Automatic annotation (TrEMBL):
Residues 31-266 form the NADP-dependent oxidoreductase domain. This is Aldo/keto reductase. Coiled coil: none annotated. SUPFAM superfamilies: NAD(P)-linked oxidoreductase. CDD domains: AKR_AKR5G1-3 (cd19157). Pfam families: Aldo_ket_red. It comes from the Bacteria. It comes from Cytobacillus mangrovibacter. InterPro entries: AKR, AKR5G, Aldo/ket_reductase_CS, NAD(P)_OxRdtase_dom_sf, NADP_OxRdtase_dom.
Length: 280
């Protein structure tokens, strides 16, 4: 049950992952980021999502250390995710990249480590490295990001371990039904990045109507829709009031009719790169 910010989903290896967390995409190193993550921890967030390419792991690590000290929680109470970037998708390079991320974060382990993008001809070796790190007990869970069904199928031809999560662009304009159905069938938890479509849905008339019905913001309606669709969600914000507002979604439930109305907004429209056609 999703009762509060500490509510978790059980990944297929038994690890508990919070349904809701904070993302730090495009937030630069420095006090703004440190304070945002500390705000999140102070207000009950337990999941923090970063990546090597965000170039902000050091500030995230500082915030985690200070947040733990100020809040009195233990490191084990937090769920920290990072991702290996495309330039490091080789077996040895991925292992080295993981150690670099750990050093920057100042942590002894990560709760979740993801292959950030399915770079053709490279992601299988990276996955083999993640399996090695996982079996050595250096990561609690491993997964992928931006993988379509055919990427997952190809990965599993040689993989020993099924990914525990697949984090993809997911919002009412891109509901990823085929990917979600495949993940559900194979016990892979779906996660959402850019759940608010970079703000592009915050004045949509149908969503305004639903938001008024529940006396909630459109952002809160979309984030609640994510959770009721069984999708782990990590919205980004650096403002304390927005961090609090985003998380204030556990005191109501969307009706089946409202869920279906939001589902119907899908246009298979991306704001980020297409995993089958990207160049970085």
């Amino acid at each position: 049950m999703m009762k509060n910010l500490q509510s978790t989903t059980t990944l297929h290896n038994g690890v508990q992952m919070p349904w809701f967390g904070i993302g730090v995409f495009k937030v630069e190193e420095g006090p703004e980021l440190v304070n945002a993550v500390k705000f999140a921890i102070k207000h009950g967030y337990r999941s923090i999502d970063t990546a090597a390419i965000y170039n902000n792991e050091e500030s995230v690590g500082q915030a985690i250390r200070e947040g733990i000290q100020e809040s009195g929680i233990a490191r084990e109470d937090l769920f920290v995710t990072s991702k290996v970037w495309n330039a490091d998708l080789g077996y040895e390079a991925t292992i080295a990249a993981y150690e670099t991320s750990l050093k920057k974060l100042g942590l002894e382990y990560l709760d979740l480590y993801l292959v950030h993008w399915p770079v053709e001809g490279k992601y299988k070796e990276a996955w083999r490295a993640l399996e090695t790190l996982y079996k050595a007990g250096k990561i609690r869970a491993i997964g992928v990001s931006n993988f379509q069904v055919h990427h997952l199928q190809e990965l599993m031809k040689d993989a020993e371990i099924m990914p525990m999560i697949n984090q993809v662009e997911y919002h009412p304009r891109l509901t990823q039904k085929e990917v979600q159905a495949y993940c559900q069938e194979h016990g892979i938890q779906l996660g959402a990045w850019s759940p608010l479509m970079q703000g592009q849905l915050l004045d949509h008339p149908a969503l305004q109507e639903i938001a008024a019905k529940y006396n909630k913001s459109i952002a809160q309606i979309i984030l609640r829709w994510d959770l009721q669709n069984g999708v782990v969600t990590i919205p980004k914000s650096t403002k304390e009031h927005r961090i609090v507002e985003n998380a204030n979604i556990f005191d109501f439930e969307l009706t089946t009719e409202d869920m279906e109305q939001i589902n119907a907004l899908n246009q298979n429209h991306r704001v980020g790169p297409d995993p089958d056609n990207f160049d970085f």
